[in-house]
């Protein structure tokens, strides 16, 4: 929020104040350091941020949005608004208009955070780039990301999440992207929008704010996205065609429209995410050498196909979250790696899958085949993965808790072994190696 005064902020909401103090930070949590900051009290299901205004002032807030009709505090500047969330979004939109960077918007059931990280690091080869921190991709998180953007930002890379209709549309209209991505269509939140067809409809709301001359980039291998925008994938008709040359634990070699690239991140799905970054880089005028330098610097958010050592074994920590699509992709990555005699999967429950959750767990089980040698299943729902495993060559063990899985995993710390951790966030499967 550089060079944004209290006076200007208030003017965006129809107030005429003569206050030239700079608003240097923004926070929605009263516990956060917020010296010379804007405090935005969010009304949640259990907590109302208005109740914590004194704590926010103690942390340095000098101005606040304040829901109309409530008694106003008298120890800071108050900007009355109908909705504090909508006011936060309005302020973000105005600040974005002032800075006027190129905007990249990214949504998708899986891969949006990895794609965001890859796009940002590639574009940093040419532009001053600002990106969503962690998964600040909601109706509150995205405007916070925008308001924390330095004024010299040339490209903003913004992740957009959803769990129902209308949310991506709101964020897209706020951001007005120059390039918008739909990385794929999975199963998460399908129960809220009526299955994968509904998910595709909700994700494609990202077009709502796309500039008239903007570019939509989508998964070429997803039939639900057929006919939409610039298509990147393995399909022969793709506009951006991917061809995998070699995959090892250390790197993947692939071609994008005939040009050779190297990616030091595991997974065929990560190759697709890298291809999205290449497509964006080319759209913004980067050449092959610049893009490869960016790919060489990629360091993904932790617990997303993160390479680690577990004793003498190689371990892939992909425990941040899971859906059937991403879990099957991670399993296929383990199966494709060369040089390992033991391939061990540690898979756990997947949540928010709706009425078809049993069938979708069983579909994951169908992907658990040789050369996978061992599969440890954790949690109540993971029993359905076991039901789907048909390959008798796979040694399957089931345990109800992460602690019991941890005891089993210690037997696999050998140099000829690769281990995958994958489950929904609620299971916190990373505790296995902590």
UniProtKB/TrEMBL annotation:
GO terms for cellular component: cytoplasm. PANTHER family: UDP-N-ACETYLMURAMOYL-TRIPEPTIDE--D-ALANYL-D-ALANINE LIGASE. Residues 304-425 form the Mur ligase C-terminal domain. ATP binds at residues 108-114. The keyword Phosphoprotein does not apply. It catalyses: D-alanyl-D-alanine + UDP-N-acetyl-alpha-D-muramoyl-L-alanyl-gamma-D-glutamyl-meso-2,6-diaminopimelate + ATP = UDP-N-acetyl-alpha-D-muramoyl-L-alanyl-gamma-D-glutamyl-meso-2,6-diaminopimeloyl-D-alanyl-D-alanine + ADP + phosphate + H(+). It is found in: Cytoplasm. Its EC number is 6.3.2.10. The keyword ATP-binding applies. InterPro entries: Mur-like_cat_sf, Mur_ligase_C, Mur_ligase_C_dom_sf, Mur_ligase_cen, Mur_ligase_N, MurCDEF_CellWall_CoF430Synth, MurE/MurF_N, UDP-N-AcMur_synth. Residues 106-280 form the Mur ligase central domain. It is an enzyme of class 6 (ligase). This is UDP-N-acetylmuramoyl-tripeptide--D-alanyl-D-alanine ligase. GO terms for biological process: cell division; cell wall organization; peptidoglycan biosynthetic process; regulation of cell shape. Belongs to the MurCDEF family. MurF subfamily. Involved in cell wall formation. Catalyzes the final step in the synthesis of UDP-N-acetylmuramoyl-pentapeptide, the precursor of murein. Signal peptide: none annotated. Residues 25-95 form the Mur ligase N-terminal catalytic domain. Its main location: cytoplasm. It holds the Pfam family Mur_ligase_M. Keywords: ATP-binding, Cell cycle, Cell division, Cell shape, Cell wall biogenesis/degradation, Cytoplasm, Ligase, Nucleotide-binding, Peptidoglycan synthesis. GO terms for molecular function: ATP binding; UDP-N-acetylmuramoyl-tripeptide-D-alanyl-D-alanine ligase activity; UDP-N-acetylmuramoylalanyl-D-glutamyl-2,6-diaminopimelate-D-alanyl-D-alanine ligase activity. Pathway: Cell wall biogenesis; peptidoglycan biosynthesis. It comes from the Bacteria.
